[in-house]
Predict the structure.
Amino acid sequence: MNKRCFPEKSHLPLLKILTMPICYELAEILRASFMKFYSLVFMLVCILSCTKIQTLSTKIGGDSSLINVFLSIEKQTQVPAELLMAMSYHETRFKTIEPTGPYFWQIPQIHGRFGVMGLSGNQLRQSILITMSQTEQNIYHAAILLRSNLDNTARIPTKEQWIDAAVKTTNYESYEAKKLYRDNLKTYVENGFYGFDDSGHILFVLPERDEHVFEHQKNDNVSMIQPDFNKAVFIPASSKNYLLQYKETNPKTVIVIHSTEGSYTSAIHWFQNPNAETSAHYLVNSNGQIYQFVKNADIAWHVGVDNFYTIGIEHEGRLAYPETWFSKNMYRASAQLVRHLAKELKIPIDRHHILGHYEICSKKDLLCADSYQFDQCHFDPGCGWDWEYYFELLQDDEALSRKGTLSGVLYYYQHPQRVVANISVEITHVESNTTQVVSSDLHGFWSSEVLEGRYQVRIKNAKTDEFFERVKVSENKETTLFIELPSSFQRP
């Protein structure tokens, strides 16, 4: 055995320095006794004892500094880093939510959350870990909370048991909200996902299946009640959170655009809480899925005294991060819903009849504005809502054609934390044989709005053959490719 394979003794722990001569002497004795098998095993132990173990997960990638934080918390608490990342992605999209702003304490179940994990005040305990940053503490508390909800009878927890423990941390009482949260976490962990931290750096979890393709799941209807819009999933709000229609007709003449200031599952939980005294007719999440809670003819409680003549549509998101939550899939799905409602209810498509929540004030809102109690006023969907693009979709049939999003992340083989920047990616629509070219950014990410259908993705390599991926893109959905390039990859 060549001793040069070992590091210099000055860099080895004392125990390894002392045991190395013993390893070799015993190995020689064993070989002399013709016990080759045991000799080989013993020498292997010696080699492993002097070999640095790779601790970074090969399933987690990107160039964000948050990656090492998640992995460090995993090492301390034994909670899987990819599950903690999935929880963070679902609640905050890896953004740090500050405990400030007009909504923060208004509805604690939805808005009173902060940090990269989106923990609520009652989920946090006073930290004594003064060596940790605020972000580390936030993730650490989420991990400890998750472990406390783990089934203690499991010696080695399964993926399902970890996810069940994560669901318990939400304190959701709504069956539908718990089911959707569980389904989302399972989809994230199994199929992979990506996001960007506060500084714009990417972090992602690779899918478990071989094709490395992630497509957001479509939820089936979980209620016997049929929605008023055929692309929606009906989840009834608590009967104490809205009014049934009066005997005389109450025509709806205005559509109000809201944002949830939290995840869509937290909003569903709140609408089904009988003490909430609030609801909306619809909700569109950032993946383009539509949910209905109150029938069009009934009166949802979303804008005070103006409820009687309005339809309320919530959109998953946070005012501080519109570009993160308000995706093109969301805009398209919402525009399709509004066009349907406008046609069915004979509502004109203009800025006099399609308003933001901030543009329609109830008497309560006017009162609070006059008394400068802005914490009770409404500003959603915020200045980040793209009204120009939204109305382009509402008024232009071609703009609202059946489209989805095709995106991807490029990284090197077995090194997902080494992303590949500035690489041209050719995207060919199989049905029409049309090709467009996009480039990966500094974080190895690329994205394009495309027509629904089958696509072939090609990356040219100057040294070896070209790389192909085939994938299907659905309407108002995002399909993400996690493309692993060989270490020998060379730019053309």
User: Anything to note?
Assistant: The chain has four domains: 3-49, 60-215, 232-395, 404-485. The mean pLDDT is 81.
